[in-house]
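queue> pop job 88
queue> type: inverse folding (structure -> sequence)
queue> payload:
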């Protein structure tokens, strides 16, 4: 048997060698064509090395040590690396005592009580939490007032439950009003700096982090005004971030949040204060159309948060933006986290992404951009004085998202891409903030009852027209229109007769470029004579007076569909 060689005879390729191989694979195109830009203004390159990542001198340290970039704990608990929290929206259907007990029996370890839809007196809250071991399952409040927090505290007192982990997550003013409980319940955290709330309004990642930091600073001032010293006040504030479908951005955002927290901690003389981070799935990317895709979105978000090492994670059911949840969707939400912990072993390694030049680079970029945003807010006098700046930035951020959604540069699977018209949209729930799919949902809901058709006026051979026919069918389906395909050929009158038989009122011409040149004018004229009220062509605009609109890659898809809806009277 010959000597086993493990590849030591291969040399170490240089950056230039890699670039040359890339250009060969790209058939002469530059490697820069693989670089993409996201809406936060950051470029993502195809290759990161120690030489180009600018992270060699970054003193990230080790997990469990300041500045805690790599995690607040030196070792993760393999049994429960983070708290699996389930949101209970008080007053929402399916958010009752049975659902809570089922969640806890199924693996949930913490409860997030959301007061956004309803308040609750102590009697109502006691009934809702009947049978819950409140000394074991931590309570985390969301959208709560000081009065809501007082009710929760009264419930704990009623059941003689003393100092237990408790996350009141109040605003700065409300937290200051309850600062006296720090003496009786030292484990309670009074306030949250809530970046997730800004994410829900459309903020980009640097804005979410920067404004969250500004809320943290405001909370410190409010608690200090009550006589609490700054280091103690800092330990009473939780960071709440949105876990988004962008896996890498979520991972780097949470690491950057620790860097930013450490800057504040060092400034007030408490550099060893560990941040407490609660991540929750942002509903911005959720949709009521084909809601099962939300499971994939939530899984991607949960992976990013879990690998980043959060302390508590709330995953929304796939029906979270609709009128109600159910036993199945809540079960899937909690099982997503359980599978990540117990089968994927996501939490077994602290900061598993640490040392990745891309992750380290993105973490640094986000932290620097967020700190600059924080400085703008502080220069304006703090978060309470900077509303005009925040409103203007949100308007700009949402406009950028809207443009990307319109052109489908930011595709939404199941909504703007590969929509399933057999899946009826769910009834939309209450105010879920800014959501990327909202405009498409409005189109689908408007078309749901009428189920309008579009005739695919295909020209030529199947191999020639199929790519554009599939493309057009996908675009029209995003607006709730069912495609009826023709059979091709070049006989304009036969195509027009097939259009009449389809009972559709509108048509889109689909063919290869050569067939467009030879037959599109004749077919468009025949369709108009046959009664088509709107004729589009799948491809770039060309000289044809009978064509009303064009659909192509990068076109303003929403505007295109909205015009068709208006034409059809939907």
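queue> result:
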């Amino acid at each position: 048997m010959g000597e086993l060689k493990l590849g030591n005879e291969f040399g170490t390729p240089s950056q230039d060698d890699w670039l040359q191989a890339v250009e060969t694979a790209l058939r002469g195109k530059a490697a820069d064509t693989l670089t993409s830009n996201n809406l936060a203004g950051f470029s993502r390159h195809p290759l990161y090395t120690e030489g180009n990542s600018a992270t060699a001198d970054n003193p990230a340290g080790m997990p469990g040590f300041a500045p805690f970039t790599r995690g607040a704990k030196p070792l993760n608990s393999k049994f429960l690396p983070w708290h699996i929290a389930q949101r209970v929206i008080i007053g929402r259907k399916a958010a009752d005592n049975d659902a809570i007990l089922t969640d806890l029996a199924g693996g949930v370890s913490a409860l997030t009580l959301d007061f956004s839809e309803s308040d609750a007196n102590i009697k109502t809250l006691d009934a809702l939490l009947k049978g819950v071991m409140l000394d074991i399952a931590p309570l985390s409040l969301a959208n709560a007032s000081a009065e809501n927090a007082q009710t929760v505290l009264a419930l704990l007192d009623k059941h003689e439950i003393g100092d237990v982990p408790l996350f009141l997550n109040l605003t700065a003013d409300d937290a200051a009003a309850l600062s006296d409980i720090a003496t009786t319940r030292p484990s309670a955290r009074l306030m949250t700096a809530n970046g997730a709330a800004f994410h829900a309004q459309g903020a980009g990642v640097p804005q979410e982090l920067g404004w969250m930091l500004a809320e943290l600073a405001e909370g410190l001032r409010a608690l200090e005004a009550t006589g609490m010293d700054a280091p103690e006040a800092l330990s009473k504030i939780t960071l709440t971030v949105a876990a988004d479908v962008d896996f890498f951005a979520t991972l780097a955002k949470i690491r950057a949040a620790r860097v930013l927290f450490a800057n504040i901690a060092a400034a007030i003389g408490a550099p060893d204060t560990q941040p407490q981070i609660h991540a929750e799935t942002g509903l911005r990317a959720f949709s009521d159309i084909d809601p099962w895709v939300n499971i994939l979105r939530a899984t991607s978000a949960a992976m990013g948060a879990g690998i980043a090492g959060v302390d508590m994670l709330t995953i929304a059911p796939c029906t979270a933006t609709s009128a109600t949840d159910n036993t199945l969707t809540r079960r899937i939400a909690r099982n997503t986290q359980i599978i990540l912990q117990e089968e994927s072993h996501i939490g077994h390694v602290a900061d598993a992404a640490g040392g990745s030049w891309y992750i380290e680079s993105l973490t640094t970029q986000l932290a620097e951009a967020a700190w600059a945003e924080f400085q703008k807010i502080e220069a304006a006098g703090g978060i309470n004085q900077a509303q005009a700046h925040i409103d203007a930035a949100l308007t700009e951020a949402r406009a950028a998202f809207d443009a990307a959604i319109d052109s489908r540069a930011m595709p939404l699977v199941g909504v703007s891409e590969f929509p399933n018209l057999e899946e009826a949209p769910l009834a939309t729930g209450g105010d879920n903030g800014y959501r990327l799919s909202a405009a498409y949902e409005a189109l689908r809901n408007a078309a749901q009852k009428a189920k309008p058709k579009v005739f695919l006026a295909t020209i030529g051979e199947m191999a020639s027209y199929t790519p554009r026919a599939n493309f057009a069918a996908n675009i029209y389906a995003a607006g709730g229109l069912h495609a009826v395909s023709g059979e091709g050929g070049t006989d304009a009158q036969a195509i027009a007769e097939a259009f009449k038989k389809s009972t559709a009122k509108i048509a889109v011409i689909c063919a290869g470029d050569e067939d467009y040149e030879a037959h599109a004018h004749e077919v468009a004229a025949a369709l108009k004579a046959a009664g088509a009220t709107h004729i589009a062509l799948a491809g770039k605009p060309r000289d044809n007076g009978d064509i009303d609109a064009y659909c192509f890659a990068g076109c303003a898809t929403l505007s295109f569909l909205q015009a068709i809806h208006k034409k059809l009277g939907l």
